[in-house]
Amino acid sequence: MKLTVEQGDALKELINIGVGRAAGVLSEMVRCNIKLQVPFIKILLPAELKKEMEELGRYRVAAVRLGFKGPFSGSAALVFPPDSASKLVAVLTGEEFAAADLDSVRVGTLSEVGNIVINGVMGSISNVLKQSINYSLPNYMEDNVDNLLTLDKRDPNATVMLARTRFTIERLYVEGDIILIFEVGSFDALLEAINKDYGGRA
Question: What is the pTM of this model?
């Protein structure tokens, strides 16, 4: 799907508003300066997302996912390579990290981070566009990219929005991805809302 320049700018601004709010919450939580940036977004098909992730070497990932329903429905995930997930959680908890499976405390911490970031982004979309969206509880998993993307057996023609995310925490750089998978037709509804309500600019 090809976006207009205005639609692309509006989507990026909505995501940036959301991660900005999330960064503020996280900074207050851990009492250190955390910056979140989204250098770009891409609109893809599920098969294209799998290829994109695998090209980055992310065959196995750590992810926090939740579903959303409303005028636009689908699922949202915050995805990290496992080593980046461990590094991020180590900074937030003050514990040393290892590349091995995360223990329950770290899983809980990363789930909270994912919940804050995803809700920041979805909250930004719903608030600015004046749409009511309901969310499911977030769940944490570590799996390969293929299983992550096919977990809920979405239509191969669903629309995926990939937002590369950079966490900067006191000179530590951690990259992850915010992935929004929209059910067929839902992304069109999102664009219609942007065209109609987003400051009349799209």
Answer: 0.85
